[in-house]
Every structure is written in C-alpha cells, then in structure tokens.
Amino acid sequence: MFRSPFFENPLTTADKSKKPDLGGWNNIRMEFEIMLVFAAATGRTLILPPDTPFYLLQRDSKLKHRGFRHFFHKFDDVVDVLSTEEFYKQEVLGKNSFSLPSDEEVRSKLLNSLSRCNFRATSETSCVQVFDHLSEIADFVPDWHGEHHCLIMDDKNWFRDTHTEMAEEIQRFCGTREPAFYNTTMHDAALFHFRTGANHKETRLLAQFYSFIHFTNPRVGNFYKRLIRNRCRYSDEIFCSSGKIIQALSGGNVDANSNHTLSSYSAMHIRRGDFQWKKMRITANEWYENTKEIFHPGETIYIATDETNQTFFEPLAIHYNLKFLSDFEDVAGLDQLDPNFVGMIDQVVCSRGRVFVGTYFSSFSAYIGRMRGYHGTSNKLMFYGQLDRMNETHKWSYPHSSYSAREYPTGWNGIDGDTEPSEVDFF
C-alpha cells in the first residue's frame, strides 16, 4: 500500500483551503487538480470553497450556485474533505483555533457567506469576505504563480529543510520559473491557503498539476498522476450521458471490454465566443482548408463549440456529416441533466473520436487531449486547427511556457511504472 513520504512530522491536523479561479471551468479544474494533489501528498484536509456561480456555468436559472462535488466523481476517500462552513463550525466557532473579525457587521456577512457566496464585493454574501478572512488567519499563504513558480517535493530532504542537488532535473522541469521547495515551514502550517483567481492574477495557478508540482521521486510522482487519472474525473452522470452519444455516433460499435471505442466518427473543438486569443479564432473555410487531409471525405464529425450561429459551419457541412450536442438531446437525456454539464459531455465525446482537432491555447481542447491519452489513444491522432500548431502533440515535449496552452505526454505516458516518463513511453 502506498504511503506518501510527506506525511511524517505533522504536529497538528493541517488544513488547506482554496479560492476558486474566476476564469472558465477548465482553468478552475486545473487549479483544483493542483490543490487535490497537494492535499493528498501532504496529508492535509481539503477545505472546499462555498458554492458559487462559476463563470459560464450559470445555465440553470433556478439555482446558479455549484460546488466541485457537483461535477466530479466522489473524491472524499482520496483526501479528507470539509466544506468551508464545516471548517468554520469545527475549527473557528467550535475549537476557537482561529479568530473571527472583530467588526460585527463584517463578521455577520462572513458567517452568512460560508455555504454559498457571490463574487460581487458589495453582496451581503460576498466570497471576497470569506477568502480575505482565510488569507488573514492562514499560517501560510503562498505567492506562487503557475508561470513564475514551480513546487518541488523532495521526499528525501524536505524535513531537513534542505534539498537534493538535482540542478539539471529541476532546471528542466522549472525552466525559467523559480523553484519553491516544500519544507517544514509549509508542512507545519496549521492552515495553508491558496489565494488564486482572476482578481489575484499575481497568484493564479494556470498550469497542469504535473507541470507545477514536481516529485523528485518518480514513483511518488507517477502515483499522483494515476490518482488524478483514476479518481479526479467527471461524475457518472456526465460519463453515462456521454456514453449514449458515443454509442449513437459509433452505430453501437463499442467494445465494452476495451478502453477503445471502435470509432466511426472524428471530433473537433471550435472555440469562438469570448476567446482572448484572437489569432486562434479562424474562419470555417480556414478550418476546412487546414484539416482536409486529416478527415475522410463525408466523415461524421462531432463538433464541440460555443459558436451559436449555425451558418458559420456551412463551409464544413458541404464536406462532412456534422453533428452537435443538440442533435442528441433525446438520446442522451439532456433534459434530465444539469444544463451546466454540456461542456463536460462535449469533452468526453470528443475524447473518443478517431481523430480530434482542437483549438490551441484552449484548456478545453487541451484536456480532451489528456483524456485521449488516458484512453491509450496515440498523441499523433490529435491536431490543432491552426496551421502553425497543427502537429504540436506529435512529438515528445516536456511542459514549458505557456503551461496552460496545451497538455503534455508526461501527464499520462508511462505513469503506470516507477520511473520518470520519457520519450521511450511516447506513442
């Protein structure tokens, strides 16, 4: 049975709280994976933030607030978990381990915001009050940024407050980033609070967990990569609905005893909407011209997109049998599901296509690539629609800046062994 080498020496029960990112879902998911790995590796209790209206996940007019448990498969047996409200009742109000604000009005607003909150500073149930207070009472609030820092977990030396001389290895992992070495100061902090989010851009952790946290022992690192692969996944509701669409697209040609779908469709993610990377927002004609050698003539292509104008896709529809999530509302029982699941369902369906073509710089597309890797699909069957990035995933590459732009094979290739994943594991 695996036991983390970072469990020893705790003087008290330690807690780790998290403020969710204010960006899109896949930015939020990336940061959550970092928090889950950090909590699991260090034996901390993970304090989940109050339910909040996530950006672009407010399709349910009756109830806009959601929490992480709503989208993910159960992870409570991976780490000990408390809600923010449970933490305050247990540790702040119950044990008086931490103090409340002295101002009565501030204290009242804080206590009213523990189960659900909003990111409007003027709201009576403002998340800002909760996370500002956690920052004030926490014993350690790192100033890490995903593009500027990397966390080194040295299992042999962390408790000595020294670190192994692995200059070449750490240089390769961190690149130009500054390494932060896990040590006893971090370990002994009773409350460790990550202050992240779009309104704290200096401490956003927009990087994949495996490109931000480096375990010097590859056996330990691979364990946590497998933990995310196996346990930090979307809920059964999302996978079951997606499975019905995959079966319909494949004509029922699905092998239940294999990880691989006998795919008779391919998939694309065409990001439009409010995407900040303007050069990645190419026309449908460009999508066709750039990818026409990848797809079969007349092939069924499932398209995940935030483009609402269907006429946009006409240049593609001339050549292919295009399918969208809206074509499967009855098959997938979408009317019975949370409408905020649609993006996750799109990702799962795309991950099973024969070929997948995504949008570079989109963490939505990038995660589809990782899921395909988890399924054992070749990295060379994923492309990007932008010509200068088209074959980005076809060669072995260690994570590098910009870290959130794509995923890297070190996250899934070779992680079932005990050695550091390398180019020999690439497929």
Tell me the Rg in angstroms: 22 Å
What gap, in angstroms, lies between the N and C termini? 30 Å
Q: Please tally the helical runs, counting DSSP H or I stretches of 4 or more residues.
A: 15
Most strands sheet: 5 strands, parallel
> Based on helices, strands and strand pairing, what is the structural class?
alpha/beta
Helix content: 25-40%
Bulk shape: globular
**Adjacency order of strands in the biggest sheet:** 10-9-8-11-12
Order of helices and strands: EHEHEHHHEHEHEHEHHEHEHEHHEHE
Global mean pLDDT: 90
Low-pLDDT stretches are none
Topology:
Blueprint: E1 15-18, H1 25-42, E2 45-48, H2 68-71, E3 81-83, H3 84-94, H4 104-112, H5 127-137, E4 149-153, H6 167-174, E5 178-181, H7 184-187, E6 191-194, H8 209-212, E7 213-215, H9 218-231, H10 236-249, E8 265-270, H11 284-291, E9 300-305, H12 314-317, E10 321-323, H13 329-332, H14 342-351, E11 356-358, H15 363-375, E12 382-384
Parallel strand pairs: 1-2, 1-6, 2-3, 4-5, 4-7, 8-9, 8-11, 9-10, 11-12
Account of the protein in words:
The protein is of the alpha/beta class and 427 residues long. Helices cover 32% and strands 11% of the residues. It has helices spanning 25-42, 68-71, 84-94, 104-112, 127-137, 167-174, 184-187, 209-212, 218-231, 236-249, 284-291, 314-317, 329-332, 342-351, 363-375; strands at 15-18, 45-48, 81-83, 149-153, 178-181, 191-194, 213-215, 265-270, 300-305, 321-323, 356-358, 382-384. Strands 10-9-8-11-12 form a five-stranded parallel β-sheet, with helices on one face. A four-stranded parallel β-sheet has the order 3-2-1-6, with helices on both faces. Strands 5-4-7 form a three-stranded parallel β-sheet. Strand 4 (149-153), helix 6 and strand 5 form a beta-alpha-beta unit. Helix 14 crosses helix 15 (363-375). The longest helix is centred in the N-terminal third of the chain and has 18 residues, at 25-42. The model has no long low-confidence stretch (mean pLDDT 90).
